[in-house]
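[Q] Does anyone have a clean structure-token version of this?
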Amino acid sequence: MQKKGRYLMAMVGFMVTLGCFGRPAKAVERLTPTALMAMAGEAVILDARPKRVWEQGHIPYALSFSWEEYTKTDAQKIPYRTPPPDEMAQALGRLGITESTPIVITGDADTSWGGEGWIAWVLTWIGHQGPVFILEGGLAGWKDLGYTVETKSRPFAPSIHYTPHPDSSPFISVADLRKRPGDFTLIDTRSFIEWIMGHIPSAIHISWKEMVDTESRTPLDPKAMRALLTKKKISIKRPIVYYCTGGIRSGWSWMAHEMAELPPAINLEGGYEAWKRTGQ
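[A] Here you go.
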């Protein structure tokens, strides 16, 4: 009876969240494994880990959606480029996802290289209208509660049309950044070794891993995120642009920033690779 009550409460919470249908997803919400179980197929689960890791075990019905499969090298030989909104919308549509589908993002904040945040950023950029969640604990938390995993691939839902509603607010290109370098606070989210080997002028280093709550495998809670920026003497009076090599790890940092309800942040599409390869 108690177990049934927990499931009912989780379902009620989920239905309240669904009240945001018809509005763009402005922030990612945390979701417990118990609440996910209560959804009973009402949401699509996107696993941010590499496909080879996903194949070793994943939440039942979770779809592999790794940046490794969806980013590409462009005509200028710049790697890790995220396709434009219309192409990403087509990719989601092929998975049976529409612009209003509830989405739960999961991963491990490790092998994913922060890909959970990249997915959240892509969904915001293309103007996803449905609620977006990140699973507390990731796959490890799911397994810790005794829930099953599977290794098989299930057939995709029938392909469907996804109508994008592009939102440029979380996006900036290297070309635009070069035009307005003094308008932003730049945060380099790569490793310290990568940073000392070369970084964008005036950038401040904060590894994306400092923005991970290792227990829940989700971004730092709002209080901790604000404390981290204060400790690093980051002012939020100017827009913050997060960047990494190509926009993946900085996607996590962008998500952590947004979930902390700070003034809107931006993720540098193309990252440091685009910066150095298009240098003047």
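[Q] Thanks! Anything notable?
[A] The mean pLDDT is 91.
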